[in-house]
Amino acid sequence: MSEKNVRLGIIGLGAQGGMYAGVISEGKVEGMTLGAIADIDPAKKEVAAEKYPGIPFYDDYIAMLDSGDVDAVVTTVPHFLHSEMTITAIGNGVHTLTEKPAGVYTKQVDEMNEFAAAHPATTFAIMFNQRTNPVYMDLKALISSGELGKLRHTSWIITTWWRPQAYYDQSAWRATWGGEGGGVLVNQAPHQLDLWQWLAGTPKKVFAKLVFGFQRDIATEDEVNAVVDFGEGATGHFLTCTNDIIGTDRLEFLFDKGKVVVEDSKKVTITRLKQDERSLSDGMSAEDVGRLFMGKIDTADLYETEVKEYESVWGQQHIDVLTNFAAHILDGTPLIADGDEGINGVRLASGMQLSAWTGREIDLVDYPADEYLAELNKRIEAEGKFPTRS
């Protein structure tokens, strides 16, 4: 490997893989060059030759791993293949950046994580690019500081994922159980599921109502309502769908000593209580409450509010993760997201699906992985288009 650059191999030259190839070839990723491209579609060879002349092309990703042309790879392929390809790459001593989601079901992700842990000399990262968004980086720091106290509840309404029927019709695998493994939870919302548990903590239980093929002619979920239990009384609600053309992105956290509201992933309103809420309650007389409700108490004596506005940083986030991945390989810079963290979002998404399928609350700590896989395979068999999973 070069002392200054990591040669990245791209597995899958689709929209995402093409974007990565573009920014790397344009020199936008410090410490990284484009090493090779692999894709099973013969037409992509011509595309690669035209856009990236001189870059080796392989129709078999394993041949690329064995070629010596790459030090690392990124898996821009269908979700079911992420874990399998990551295991193969790491087994070949090739550093791997896995795309989100880490997989479709927890059994395959557990196998990937265990294999990666047994090969610690090979870097294993995941593309959680939203963790580089300054909005969420600052929010993570605020929550982790403990300034606002313990979490009471959190809610995320994220319905900005509108997709028309033509989106689903363009590929036979989209929004199928056997080809994609789910709908909005595994395609559009994994970033939010990761951010939510990264910020609030990993939920312990989930109960969910999902609607399958509600407003689109698809097999999988296109609307989700879920309630989670974080333990110690803290709860949360997650709502997402692909049929709201207007869309809402509103994230709220209520803590003992304040509240945070994030609107459109850009505007953050932080309200800090002068005392924790319980102390304010205990110290307020009936007369005080009456005056408060009539607007005769200056709320500045109770709390203060700060509003922050952030600029959109779309696109730069992926570059930041790629740069960090290269820096970790070259000099040990800590990863933005270690690959083994991907299982948290997968477990949460599949727990929501299993809850909807069974009508019961699902334990996310003692997670019924085998039951989920059996239920998933029932739906794959019913589709009759794809092989079942193991």
TrEMBL record:
Signal peptide: none
Residue ranges occupied by any GFO/IDH/MocA-like oxidoreductase domain in the UniProt entry: 137-260
Start and end residues of each Gfo/Idh/MocA-like oxidoreductase N-terminal domain: 7-121
Domain of life where this protein originates: Bacteria
SUPFAM superfamilies: Glyceraldehyde-3-phosphate dehydrogenase-like, C-terminal domain, NAD(P)-binding Rossmann-fold domains
InterPro entries: Gfo/Idh/MocA-like_OxRdtase_N, Gfo/Idh/MocA_Oxidoreductase, GFO_IDH_MocA-like_dom, NAD(P)-bd_dom_sf
Gene3D superfamilies to which the protein is assigned, alphabetical: Dihydrodipicolinate Reductase, domain 2, NAD(P)-binding Rossmann-like Domain
GO molecular function, one term: nucleotide binding
Key words of the record: NAD
Official protein name in the record: Putative dehydrogenase
Source organism phylogeny: Bacteria, Bacillati, Actinomycetota, Actinomycetes, Micrococcales
